[in-house]
């Protein structure tokens, strides 16, 4: 099987086709112990639409991997005059991205962005030239509800944490012009939680329903639409979720005490001895007991489960995981490793859905925390299934997971800091 990779040659990026040995279903059943080749990108077809996944693996590139940032800039630069770009930015410090958006506006692209309110004054307090540039866009809005930093959420703890762009027209990595393009994932537009961290993004080309859904979510943020008890996601009314061929997306916030966005999606699977679940997560708190229960239930049904979790900070190398959850999951037999600079939020699952086994990827901006569910603006995206015969998107996330996990530190109950 052949895969397109972005490979660095000096300071330039070159699109190269190479042959990789990808995991078979049998290989996926075993814990990898050898270092996987660094995966930068993979092009696949999901739900009848071209889909590209991109990954940052900083240790493979002297601790700063621009793969995702360069791809977003490429998408912006490929947007033609009179087309439309909409973007949601949680944090911003990379001038090249802001400058690409300004240049797009200057060539008559309609550019609109919403930005988490914490960035609002960084151009003056921190001499943040990226924020200074973004303020020159005609259509930009900082999310500053009350004392918070969100647009829809009314919580004082709320963030606009979604990382998403849509393009009415741009080009794919092969240079083919595409319409109705959606870009989303875990990467921020700062060095610390962007190029300097393990991250993933997915770009879906031509799926109009997904594109329209993300734009509806963007419009709600732009218009600062608020809902009683912060109940933006409401399945009964059809609000806050967007179903499409390539993926279904679910938006936070959701009223506290209702459902758990991630649990409800993973509950579609029936765990058994053939099940394999890999979790890449920036941090884990005790605020999602339903998710802890689901993972333990999967394990008790025979599912093999591995987790890689980030560390607390550059100065605190302990695992960024609440100790009670750490001990609970290790006690259930979950294999956990810590790895510095993991900023991912994804689940790669091989399991039985109904009567058939499928390979599925779940990703987006949601961390394993209560805030991500009830206070923040987030998206959680369930990619359409891949068959057992061919599953290159799952394979790419499998290898990205191993890039961090296989080079991480194994955790044990006797060492809570891992």
Describe this protein's structure.
By secondary structure, the chain is α+β, with helices and mostly antiparallel strands. Helix content is 23%, strand content 29%. Residues 1-37 have low confidence and may be disordered. It contains 11 helices and 19 strands. The protein has 2 domains: 38-230, Endonuclease, Chain A (2-Layer Sandwich); 251-410, Endonuclease, Chain A, CATH 3.30.870. It has a 9-stranded mixed β-sheet with strand order 11-12-18-17-16-13-14-15-19, with helices on both faces. It has an 8-stranded mixed β-sheet with strand order 3-4-10-9-8-5-6-7, sandwiched between helices. The protein starts with a strand and ends in an 8-residue tail after the last strand. The chain has helices spanning 25-28, 67-77, 95-106, 122-125, 129-134, 208-222, 261-266, 289-300, 323-331, 370-374, 392-405, and strands at residues 2-9, 12-19, 41-46, 49-56, 84-89, 110-116, 139-143, 164-171, 177-185, 199-205, 241-243, 247-251, 276-281, 304-309, 335-338, 345-353, 356-364, 379-383, 409-410. Helix 2 (67-77) packs parallel to helix 3.
């Amino acid at each position: 099987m052949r895969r397109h990779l972005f490979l660095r040659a000096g300071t330039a990026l070159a699109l190269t086709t190479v042959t990789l040995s990808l995991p078979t279903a049998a290989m996926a059943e075993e814990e990898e112990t050898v270092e996987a080749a660094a995966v930068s990108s993979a092009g696949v077809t999901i739900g009848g639409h071209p889909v590209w996944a991109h990954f940052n693996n900083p240790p493979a590139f002297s601790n700063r991997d621009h793969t995702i940032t360069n791809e977003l800039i490429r998408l912006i630069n490929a947007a033609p005059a009179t087309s439309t770009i909409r973007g949601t930015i949680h944090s911003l410090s990379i001038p090249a991205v802001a400058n690409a958006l300004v240049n797009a506006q200057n060539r008559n692209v309609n550019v609109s962005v919403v930005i988490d309110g914490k960035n609002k004054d960084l151009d003056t307090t921190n001499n943040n030239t990226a924020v200074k540039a973004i303020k020159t866009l005609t259509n930009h809005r900082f999310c500053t509800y009350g004392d918070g930093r969100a647009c829809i959420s009314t919580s004082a703890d709320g963030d606009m944490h979604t990382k998403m762009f849509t393009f009415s027209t741009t080009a794919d990595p092969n240079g083919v012009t595409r319409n109705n393009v959606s870009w989303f994932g875990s990467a921020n537009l700062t060095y610390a939680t962007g190029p300097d961290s393990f991250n993933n993004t997915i770009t879906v080309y031509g799926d109009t329903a997904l594109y329209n859904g993300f734009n509806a979510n963007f419009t709600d943020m732009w218009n600062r639409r608020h809902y009683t008890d912060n109940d933006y996601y409401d399945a009964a009314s059809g609000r806050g979720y967007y179903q499409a061929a390539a993926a279904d997306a679910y938006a936070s916030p959701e009223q506290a005490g209702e459902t758990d966005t991630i649990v409800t999606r993973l509950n579609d699977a029936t765990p058994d001895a053939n099940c394999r679940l890999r979790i890449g997560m920036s941090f884990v708190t005790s605020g999602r007991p339903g998710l802890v229960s689901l993972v333990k239930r999967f394990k008790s049904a025979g599912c093999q489960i591995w987790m890689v979790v980030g560390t607390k900070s550059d100065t605190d190398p302990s695992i960024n995981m609440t100790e009670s959850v750490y001990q609970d999951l290790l006690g259930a037999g979950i294999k956990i490793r810590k790895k510095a600079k993991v900023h991912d939020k994804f689940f790669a699952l091989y399991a039985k859905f109904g009567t058939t086994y499928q390979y599925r990827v779940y990703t987006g901006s949601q961390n394993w925390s209560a805030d991500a569910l009830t206070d923040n603006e987030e998206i959680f995206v369930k990619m359409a299934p891949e068959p057992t015969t061919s599953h290159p998107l799952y394979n790419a996330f499998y290898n990205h997971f191993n890039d961090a996990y296989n080079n991480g530190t194994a955790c044990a109950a006797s060492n809570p800091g891992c």
